[in-house]
Specification:
The strands form 3 sheets. This protein has a 7-stranded antiparallel β-sheet with strand order 13-14-15-16-17-18-19. The protein has a 6-stranded antiparallel β-barrel with strand order 1-2-3-6-5-4. A 6-stranded antiparallel beta barrel has the order 7-8-9-12-11-10. The protein has 9 helices and 19 strands. By secondary structure, it is α+β, with helices and mostly antiparallel strands. Helix content is about 20%, strand content about 30%. A hairpin with a 2-residue loop joins β2 (about 75-95) and β3. α6 (about 385-415) runs antiparallel to α8.
């Protein structure tokens, strides 16, 4: 009887019942979910992610100084210098030699150059100009220990994507997570936002993707966002946004938070990372489609527009600029005229201000400025103005070309709209962009109109009469004060150009720029 159990065990051994277990191989991570990104994670995974040492996310302080020019009580022009301090978030994502690259939003890295209705800065009057700016990593908004601040410099600015890359000479911890694929997101996916709300302290917020893809054309932006419902604030601008990979259970960078709807508590826009990957690597702005927006016209654009004008029976085109009507007219093969019509148009068709291009080196170079009444017009060579005034007129001329090219693009896309939904959408987007330019255009036009009027007051007579219009003196029938015949008077056009003083020459400063 005792032999039976032994024989039974031998039989089992011979059948391999007690064979050694196979050698242990690498343990593969258990996939959290189907698809690319998780809608939720187990408690242990959430705790591990939340407790991670995420020292690659930093508070960024932007300190700018604005120059505000105004009239004092004594009637003299004066300057004051006003500080503007804002806080945002940035994250170190790559080492470059001994340096560290930090990504954030463009509106954190660069405050507006000039304040206006579309570019407001809290506490800074409209029409102020930025004269100085400093960027630094700080512990929080109350950190005033300057020796502990880490200086930053800009290496990439992409306003259309609202993204910027900053460089510091200090070696900082960089993001340990990989770049993900924002195109793989879907509604309901879990996201985590790391940043400094209101610049007060480091924080991690969670939420869900509410819309995985939407085009952002607000405020001159031209990029793709996805929407999340995580609770974030202004100090979170530039925060990295992560989704949890189903395959690895690890966070992956899928975007950079940049804006929220003011009338909604949890409707926030994140710049999708797919369109940022290349420029974050190459440090060159991406050539993305601006959804119908026209860039600065080049030589080919101007040649095409002039060719279209020459084929039009009226050889002219009317478009809007600064809330005014403008007629661009091909007067002859070598003269192009941009006429800004009077504010009373269509009751009056008088051109309040005309910019003349005589195509000496091809169209695109301003030659003269003309203004005057219905009967008498005065043309002033651009060279007669001071450098600052010439710059204003050059900017106005370039802005008119830009507006003309955009209007032509808009009309062409609108014509294709009934048969092409994409063209119709692009036309609508471009129309909004055209309307947003009005405030900046008005300011530029007002400056140039003032300078043109000032030129008339300084010279006292036309510097050069417009073609086909008689000299103002002859039209008025005035006699020559020297007693000679009018025919013997020296034409004003032959006189040397009169240099005009710049408005900035009258300014006095009560506060030195180094005071801030």
């Amino acid at each position: 009887m005792a032999a039976r159990p032994f024989a039974f065990l031998v039989a089992l051994w011979s059948m391999g019942a007690f064979a050694a277990a196979p050698a242990a191989g690498p343990v593969r991570p258990v996939q959290l979910c189907a698809g690319d990104y998780a809608d939720g994670v187990p408690e242990d995974v959430a705790a591990r992610i939340a407790e991670g040492k995420e020292t690659f996310v930093f508070a960024i302080r932007n300190t700018a100084t604005y120059e505000h020019v105004f009239y004092g009580r004594d009637g003299r022009l004066r300057r004051s210098y006003l500080p503007s301090v804002i806080h945002g978030t940035g994250f170190a994502y790559r080492r470059q030699g001994l340096d560290t690259l930090v990504a954030t939003n463009e509106h954190v890295a660069a405050q507006p150059e000039v304040t206006d209705d579309d570019h407001k800065v809290e506490g800074i009057p409209r029409g102020s100009k930025k004269v100085r700016e400093h960027l630094a990593i700080v512990r929080n908004e109350d950190d005033d220990y300057e020796p502990g601040h880490v200086a930053l410099t800009r290496v990439l600015i992409d306003a259309s994507a609202d993204v910027a890359v900053l460089r510091t000479r200090k070696a900082l911890p960089v993001m340990p997570h990989r770049f993900g694929r924002s195109g793989a997101l879907r509604a309901g996916n879990l996201v985590q936002v790391r940043g400094f709300p209101l610049g007060v302290f480091s924080s991690l917020n969670s939420g869900k993707v509410t819309n995985p893809s939407t085009e952002d054309g607000e405020k001159g932006w031209a990029h793709t966002d996805f929407m999340i419902d995580a609770l974030v604030t202004s100090g979170n601008s530039g925060s990295p946004v992560f989704a949890i990979s189903c395959k690895t259970g690890e966070p992956e960078l899928v975007g950079i938070y940049h804006a929220g709807y003011s009338e909604a508590a949890a409707l926030n826009a994140v710049v999708a990372v797919d369109q940022l990957r290349e420029e974050l690597e190459t440090l060159r702005p991406s050539k993305r489609d601006a959804r119908g927006g026209h860039g600065e016209p080049n030589f080919a654009d101007r040649a095409r527009l002039v060719r279209e004008l020459s084929q039009d029976p009226a050889r002219s085109l009317t478009f809007s600029f600064a809330g005014r009507a403008v007629i661009v007219r091909l007067a002859d093969a070598g003269t192009l005229r941009f006429g800004v019509l009077d504010e009373d148009f269509p009751l009056s068709t008088r051109e309040a201000l005309t910019l003349v291009d005589r195509a000496r080196t091809g169209f695109g170079t301003l030659s003269a400025v003309e203004q005057g009444g219905e009967l008498v017009r005065q043309e002033t060579p651009l060279a007669a103005y001071g450098p600052d005034v010439r710059e204003h007129f050059q900017k106005l001329y370039e802005a008119l070309w830009h507006q003309l090219a955009s209007v032509v693009d808009y009309r062409q896309r609108l014509l294709r709209g009934p048969a092409d939904a994409e063209a119709f959408s692009q036309a609508r987007s471009l129309r909004l962009k055209l309307r947003r330019r009005a405030a900046e255009q008005k300011e530029l036009l007002n400056v140039c109109t003032f300078e043109a009027d000032r030129a008339t007051l300084v010279t006292g007579q036309p510097i050069a009469s417009a073609p086909g219009v008689e000299n103002q003196k002859a039209a008025a029938g005035d006699a020559d004060p020297s007693g000679a015949d009018g025919d013997s008077a020296t034409p004003a056009a032959s006189a040397s150009p009169v240099p005009l003083p710049s408005a900035s020459a009258e300014l006095t400063s009560d506060v030195p720029i180094a005071a801030q």
